[in-house]
Amino acid sequence: MLFLYNRKERRIFMFIDRAVIEVRSGKGGDGAIAFLREKYVAKGGPAGGNGGRGGSIFLRASKTINTLFNFRHSKTFIANDGEKGGIKNQYGKYAEDVIVDVPIGTVVYLEEGKEFLGDLNEDGKIIRVAKGGRGGRGNSCFKSSTNRVPKIAENGEPGERKRLILELKLLADVGLVGFPSVGKSTLLSVVSAAKPEIADYPFTTITPNLGVVSVKDGSSFVMADLPGLIEGAHLGKGLGLQFLRHIERCRLIVHVIDLSETGRDPYNDYVVINKELEQYGFALDKRPQIIVASKMDEEGAKEKLAKLEKQIGQEIIPISAITEENIDKLLYKCSETLKNTPLFPLYDEKEEDLDHKTYTLEDEEPFFTIRRIDAHTWSIEGDKMLKFYKMTNISTDEGMMVLMSKIRSLRIDDELENRGAEDGDTVILDDFEFEYVR
Q1: What domains can be seen in the chain, in order of their start residue?
Q2: What is the pLDDT of residues 107-152, one digit of tens each?
């Protein structure tokens, strides 16, 4: 969140294009332990129903939202748990999914490790960010030829809890870059219906502005006026770091250089801005760039242009927003360049892989780990082991037998012995404790 003071209107702006939220999907409903008891049905057998699935949480791109401001207060989204299974093989009700609308152009990461989850770059695009837990099986699912009256059921699968980073990256075809007050906002106001604030002090533009540009040949594109960059912007100086992300999607960069009597060196400005784009990453320095010399109506601008063309060694389009000199030429140039410029994907995204992970023999997670807490206390840990424990209903003797059988089959007792556990030591598994005996 960034608070900035607008000296012209004497008020504080709050621009938010990044937010951190927490999502919690619902736990699956517990399976039921029940037996059929009807007047004329002898030995009706197990009849415990399965639990319902917990609610999942989805993020959806919506054109009705254009800011992450609402997430400043709504930071936690929680889905309901699935309903428990019932008697007479009644299944629990599925919990409703939670769909959270975000602006088009929002990129989603896990906060831990900043793992990329998805790019919501199209209206209506949706991704699941927290999967609801499946419902636990009732005891009717455990009936077999050797266990006709099972008194065991599964608890529902735990839901997921994640902290996510949401970053809004504007969807624009053309991005205007340059130092503060070089004329980017003025140019956007001339070529589109956008009305950015224009003033003669640095950092007048404190939020990105978008405008739809219509070219006389019938084509159109979206242009973004970004806050001015300065040297060190990619490291967080000035306003650059907050807003450089908005140029990541642009297929074409229009580099605006001020040729008025400012006392600045136009060539040095050109070099500094390009260096900032290169060091920021996302291959910004590899994208097509049109160089524009602004404020050509001012005295001495033509001489500066001639010198700059020799220094840079490529075409520069001189413009004047006041006289509209070469404005059409610039727009035609942008339109023609965009026709031959493909999209630059931010990531190699594969939507079908977002809901599951493929493990190899080298990176498969162990089912459990053991940690020594003190001289006579041990902890059994590991996501898979904790999940199995939480889904095991230990309220019955049979359920407890299932848990202890799992511990023995995993040879956890052998691992404890190898680690130096002694008779009488306390072993902790989540909220369950037992005594170690060799």
Answers
A1: 14-168 (2.70.210.12), 174-339 (3.40.50.300), 369-435 (3.30.300.350)
A2: 899 998 888 898 898 899 999 999 999 999 999 999 988 888 899 9
